[in-house]
Amino acid sequence: MDTLSSMRVFVRVVELGGFNAAARACAMSAAMVAKHVGHLEERTGARLLDRTTRSVRPTPEGQLYLDKVLAILEAVDEAEGTVGAENRESRGTLRVTAPVELGQDHLAPLLVDFMSRHPGIAVVADLTNRPVDLVQEGFDMAIRVAPSLDTALIGRKLATTHFRVVASADFLARHGVPDTPEMLSALPALTFSQPAPRLDWSWRRREMQGKVRMTARLASTSADTLRKAAVAGLGVSWLPSFVCGKDIEAGLLVPILEDCDWGSLGVHVLYPHRRFVPSRLRLFIDFLAESLGDDPSGDPWAPRAEDRRAMRAGGRSA
């Protein structure tokens, strides 16, 4: 067996706490993972792992070996990244999880582009809005959308998505265009339902700030459901730009009270806390940052200024 490959597998077993999780992450069988570990134990003449029915932990000898192995793998990775990088193609399987709406509408085309550039990399993309335990489930990285993150994982902010209050032009023609945030409270709201219906919409306008209390006509866990209901003219909705930006540019939705700040979320990439990061993961994170504008404070999904002016004009004429 190739000892360097066995070292990489051994690191994954320790990181993920089990042979099955390491097998999924390494795209091999659990039996093959055991063979790699056995190969190292035979070479070192020491038991490297304590195995129980619930977990796998390094022995004292295994922990010492792990520290040395991590240093070796870092040196190898640095050497490969320095010498002949332009001629080396990264390989392996990248396991990624992301929210459904962000994944379907925005991550999917980026994955196609990334995989076209790197034919040696395979991707497993799990699009879900449930919390995913990267370590226990064997994922390399997660994309999460949140105001801030309290996590032991390594994180990098890729971009910012701003909220917008939107409605269809037909809805505004029937109900009128609000001039103040308080006027929104008279309109039916299409709002998020978890952990409870989001009925208080916070706003800032120059030196002023406040909250407007809404009445929900539709509450949903799905941002796409709220977007479609808004396009159909059922009410006003409070949506992040990555959900409603394309509809604003297409004229299907009109932003309301654009001089108000309706809040924002960060788009973060997270990966397990470890010293050794596979080159395929580094490549993908750098690719995402470049594709989204390489400015963590920027909003890559915001409609262009000329489109916003056109929408405002359309809203006034309505």
Secondary-structure map with pairings?
Blueprint (H helix, E strand, L loop, with lengths): L2 H14 L2 H8 L3 H15 L4 E3 L4 E3 L1 H23 L9 E7 L1 H18 L3 E7 L6 H4 L3 E6 L7 E14 L1 H7 L12 E5 L7 E6 L2 E6 L1 E6 L2 H9 L4 E5 H10 L3 E3 L7 E8 L7 H13 L13 H13 L1
Parallel strand pairs: 3-4, 3-5, 7-10, 7-11
Antiparallel strand pairs: 1-2, 5-13, 6-11, 6-12, 6-13, 8-9
Helix pairs in contact: 1-2, 1-3, 1-4, 2-3
Distance N to C terminus: 72 Å
- Using the CA coordinates, give the radius of gyration: 24 Å
The amount of helix comes to 40-55%
Q: How many E strands?
A: 13
| CATH class division of the largest domain | Alpha Beta
* Molecular shape: elongated
Q: In the CATH classification, which architecture of the largest domain applies?
A: 3-Layer(aba) Sandwich
What's the number of structural domains? 2
Task: List the total number of helices.
Answer: 11
**CATH fold annotation of the largest domain:** D-Maltodextrin-Binding Protein, domain 2
Strand content: 15-25%
Order of helices and strands: HHHEEHEHEHEEHEEEEHEHEEHH
Structural class: alpha/beta
